[in-house]
Amino acid sequence: SLVVLFGATAGAYGAKLGSDERELILLVWQVVDLHSKKVGTLHKSLVKADNLDLSDQCREVSGLTPEGLGKAEPLDRVLQQFSQLVSSDLKVLGRSSYTLCSDGQLLIRQVLHPETSKKNFLLSDCFYSFYDLRKEFHTCYPSSAAVKDQTIKTMAEYLGLGTDEAEEDFGVWQVKTMVAIIFSMLSEGCNHIFTEPETVKYKYETGPCLLCLLFFFLCSSKSETVDSETVIRARGLPWQSSDQDIARFFKGLNIAKGGVALCLNSQGRRNGEALVRFVNSEQRDLALERHKHHMGSRYIEVYKATGEEFLKIAGGTSNEVAQFLSKENQVIIRMRGLPFTATQEDVLGFLGPECPVTGGKEGLLFVKYPDGRPTGDAFVLFSCEEYAQNALKKHKEILGKRYIELFRSTAAEVQQVVLNRYMSTPLIPTLPTPIIPVIPPPYTIATGSIRDCVRLRGLPYTAGIDDILEFMGDATGDIKPHGVHMVLNQQGRPSGDAFIQMKSADKAFMVAQKCHKKMMKDRYVEVFQCSGEEMNFVLMGGTLNRSGLSPPPCKLPCLSPPAYAAFQTAAVIPAEAAALYQPQALLPSTRTPQASAAAPPTVTYYPAQAAQLYMNYTAYYPSPPVSPTTVGYIAAPPGAVAAAATATHTPILPQPGALVRMQGLPYNTGMKEILSFFQGYQYAPDDYNGLIQLSDQARSVLQAPKEWVCL
C-alpha cells in the first residue's frame, strides 16, 4: 500500500518549499491499495505553527488564515493522529504495511525532517522511506518532462487528466490528482511496479572516508577524486559544533560515510567551517537550499565546494590513524594541552574508571610532529555516549601542572590534525646559499607629509608580495627599493593591509586612481594615497581610518622613550631578527674570549634572487617601524667580510653565541619586560655600538630600559 502525502508550509511553495525554514501548516493524505486499487478515507489536517505569520504566497495559494491555524493542533499531535488514522484505514483495506508517496523530495527531506529535528522529537520509521512520484512517473513515461521540471499539474496534463484546481480545497485536489496518476501508472498499458523507494539515513555514519583512505594510498598517482557535484562548504558554524551537529543541521539529506570534514586553522583549532560530502548531486543541491538556515541562533552559509578541497581537508591519514579509526560506532574526544611528558598511563589515569577507553591504550592516539616530539594533543575513543559525557566533565581539570581541554571530535578532524602536524615544516627553513653575495644598500623609511605612498586595504590574507606586484601592474617600476611593507597583526599574521612607497607623489596619485577597487583573487582592494608619516604611524602600531590618525603607544607623551629619531636614519636589520634566520649548518661554535677578537663578524646578505625585488617582507612580526624583509642572514666568507667592512657602512651583526632566541613570549611583551626577564645578567650595549648603526638617542634606549615601555 501507498500513503499519498501532500503538505504546505507558512512560506514558499512549489520548488522552493522548505528553503525559507518556515513551519509546516498543512498535511493531506490518503491510503492507496496497489493490488485492489482501492483507496481509504482522504484526511486533511491543519498544523499550528509557532509563528503564524503567513507569507503572501501562502495566503494566496492555500487560502489559509492565522485565525484558522491558531485552532489547530501542533505538529507532534498531528503526526500521532496521522499514524493512528493510517493504521485504521489499512485495517479496513485488509493491509498492514505501507510506504509514503510524495510529490518530489522536498516535503520529506526539506520540511518534515529538519523541523522535527529542531523541535526535538522523532519521526516514525515510515518517514525514512518514501517514493518520489516524479521519479516514478518519469520511469514509467520516459518521454515526459525531466524530473526537476515535473509538477502534479504537468503530470496530470501529460495523462489528460482534469486539472481544475478550483473545484477542490487546497491540498485535497493535489492528493486526489496524485492518486489518479498512480492508478494510470498501474493500468494495463504501463503495469508500473513500485520497487525502489528513496531512503533517508537514520544517522550520520562516522569513520574514515573510504575514498579518502584510497586517496592516501594512491596519492602518488593523483588518480582518485571526489565528485565536486557532491560537496558543499558550510560557514559560520559554532566553534564547538561536531560532525553530528552538522549532520543534524542537514537532517533529511544523506551524507556519505565520513563525509563531514571540520576545517582547522594553522593552530589546529576549528575555524567555523566544514566541508560536507553527500551521496549524490541531488542531495548536494538540496543542501544548497539550506543557505542561511539556522543552527541555534546562528545562520549558516552554504556554498558549493570541490572534491579537491574535500580531499585536502579529509584525505590525510596514515596507517596509525586508519587503525585508530577502524573501530566504528565510537565516540571521539579530543584532548588538548597535555604535558609533553604525558604517557598513555597518565591519560588513562586522568580519565579514570568512570570513562573507560575503548581498547585501553589502543584507544589513544597521540599527535606528534614529524620529528617525534609531542604536540600536546591526543584523541580518545569511547564505546558509548555515557562514557564520553563523563570524560567531558573533566574539561579543564589538572594533569600534572596543566589544565586539559576536552572537546567532541570527529574522524575527519583526527585525519586533518594528524596530517597537518605530520606535514608541518620547521619554523625556520634553511635558506639556500646565494651564488653571488649582494650587500644591500642602506634604505630609509619614508617620513614627512609628502603623499608619495599608497595604502592597500582589504588584501586577501593569502596574498604575498608577488600578488601585490602583479596587482600594481606597470606601476611596479615606480616603487622605491624596499618600498613594499606588509602590515601584520599582533599574532604575526597578515592583517590585509600593506603600504607601498612610490618614487613621487604623482606616481602615488596615479596608482591610487588606477588600482582603487581593482580585484585581487576574489576580493576588491582599496587603494589610498597617503604620506610617509602616516605610513610610519601605522607600521609602529597606530591606526589610520576615517576618524583620523591615532598614534601608536610609543608616540604617546607618557610612554615615549627619550627619542624615537633612530628610525629617521638609515634603517637597520635588528640583530634579534638576524638570529632567527641563522641556518644551523652555518652556525660556528660559541666563541671564546680569546677567539672573539680574531673571529670575523657575520655580514648580512640578500639572496641573489632577492636583489631585483623592491620589497621588505617576512613571515615574522616586524619591530616598528621596519616592515618584514626577505633578506636572508647567511654567513659570508671572511674575505667578503673584510671587504664589506671597509667598503660600506652596512650593519654588521654579532657573532652567533652572543645572541639568544626567546620563544613563547606573550604578544604584548615589550623591551622592558624582556630586559626585566634577564635582570641580573649582563647584556652588552657597548658591544651593540660596533654592530648596529645607532644614534646616541637610540643607544640610550638600550642603556636606560627603565625609561622605555613598548605596548
UniProtKB/TrEMBL annotation:
One of its GO terms (molecular function) is RNA binding. Signal peptide: none annotated. It comes from the Eukaryota. GO terms for biological process: mRNA processing; RNA splicing. Residues 331-411 form the RRM domain. Transmembrane segments: none annotated. It is found in: Nucleus. Belongs to the ESRP family. PANTHER family: HETEROGENEOUS NUCLEAR RIBONUCLEOPROTEIN-RELATED. This is Epithelial splicing regulatory protein 2. It comes from Chloropsis cyanopogon. The lineage of its organism: Eukaryota, Metazoa, Chordata, Craniata, Vertebrata. The gene is Esrp2.
